[in-house]
Design a protein that fits this description.
With 188 residues, the chain is an all-beta fold. The protein has strands at 2-3, 12-15, 18-28, 36-43, 49-55, 59-62, 65-76, 79-84, 90-94, 109-115, 121-125, 129-137, 150-155, 160-164, 172-176, 181-185. The strands form 3 sheets. The protein has a 6-stranded antiparallel sheet, with no helix packed on it. Strands 9-8-7-10-11 form a 5-stranded antiparallel sheet, with no helix packed on it. Strands 14-13-12-15-16 form a 5-stranded antiparallel sheet, with no helix packed on it. A hairpin with a 5-residue loop joins strand 8 (79-84) and strand 9 (90-94).
Length: 188
């Protein structure tokens, strides 16, 4: 058993007869009344996201997890195939288990969380950022850079990201996987 002081991003807990992963949390200490923790939970079975508030000191049942490195092989519809980098065993996961499946490139190494009780995969943790090539974007118009203007760009995985006007087709860009946003132009 854990308490609300142990809540952190990525913690898996048992709540309402399901396993949830904490994707956001905020400790709130109002001037009047007891402290509480506001959380955003994502179900690892259905992918459903819900908001919940725990009062301070509330006991939560955490799930023991084990992390393993897997390489993404390919996607077949909504099924994603991964290979263990240690023993070369392959597993298949549904699209709902991934936070940002549209940023996953073949050959990318990810961390998969497994429940230690039954060895079931719970969720996939992407790297903090990925480097992808821009396959399509409109050319930027010179002189339109007075503000932080952006334009949509399609990257090699098919995802659409807003990028600054100076980015052109063929450029490699670094993308923040948590926010699915442009970080910087990749240094070759």
């Amino acid at each position: 058993m854990a308490s609300t002081s142990d809540i952190r991003k990525g913690l898996c807990i048992r709540y309402n007869h399901d396993i949830y992963k904490i994707i956001e949390f905020l400790h709130v200490k109002p001037g009047k009344g007891p402290a509480f923790v506001r959380t955003k939970l994502k179900s690892v079975t259905t992918g459903k996201v819900l908001d919940n508030t725990f009062s301070a000191g509330h006991k939560i049942e955490d799930v023991r997890v084990e992390t393993r490195s897997y390489q993404f092989l390919y996607a077949e519809g909504d099924t994603f195939h991964f290979m263990n980098t240690d023993d070369y065993n392959q597993i298949m996961l549904q699209k709902e288990a991934l936070d940002t499946p549209d940023l996953l490139k073949e050959g990318e190494v990810v961390t998969i969380l497994f429940n230690t009780e039954d060895s079931m995969p719970l969720s996939v943790d992407m790297p903090a950022h990925v480097t992808l090539e821009v396959t399509h974007t409109e050319p930027g118009v010179k002189g339109n850079t007075a503000t932080n203007a952006t334009k949509p760009a399609t990257v090699e995985t098919g995802a659409t990201i807003n990028v600054p006007l100076f980015i052109n087709e063929g450029d490699r860009i670094k993308i923040d996987t948590e926010k699915s946003s442009y970080m910087e132009r990749a240094k070759e």
